[in-house]
Design goal:
The protein contains seven helices and seven strands. The strands form two sheets. It has a five-stranded mixed beta sheet with strand order 4-3-5-6-7. Strands 1-2 form a two-stranded antiparallel ribbon. Bound molecules: zinc ion (ZN).
Length: 203
Amino acid sequence: MQKINEIEDLIRLISKLPGLGPKSAKRIVLKLINNRDELVKPMANTLAQVYKNVTRCNLCGSLKSNITGCFNCQNIKEKFNKICVVEDISDQWSIENSNIFEGYFHILGGTISSVGRKKEDLLINSLVDRVNKEKIEEVILATSATVEGQTTAYYIKDSLKYTKAKVTKLAQGLPIGGEIESLDDGTLYSAFKNRTKLNSDLG
Ligand SMILES: [Zn+2]
């Protein structure tokens, strides 16, 4: 391929996407430039819209549209008494797809020790506020079975000690190092069903 700066830049950007290396990035870029009107133009517009309108919700950590608001914590018609805390939105999607859990979600956006993540970024204060405001009875910590995930779970448990909620954690059946999004429905189901209580002072 001849060197065209714009194309090189695009290949470099696309190869940063998950599951894509330089080779597949080149194939994607070729497909794009061969379909300027059908792909490049609408994609450029859509990306601009996403950049402008889609941001992280400061309350629940999910993605929200600045036009329609946050579906996760503002547009929900049903009231729930449980909230499930996950690291990433992909974990929420896995749990939703498996139909194991009915309740609110809170997305940390990482773990305490993940690179570049400060405790404030994880929206833990906002979680405590939500638990109090929504009169949540159970907080289910569905962080991954990694050292960072478990450290984060215990930190959150401590942060919730002045709320009335029972705090539970997914069962140890999770494979060590297991990330929620990579679990099959069966494993996820038993991890939810056999979740253990972390705070012992409440009935
Ligand atoms: Zn929200």
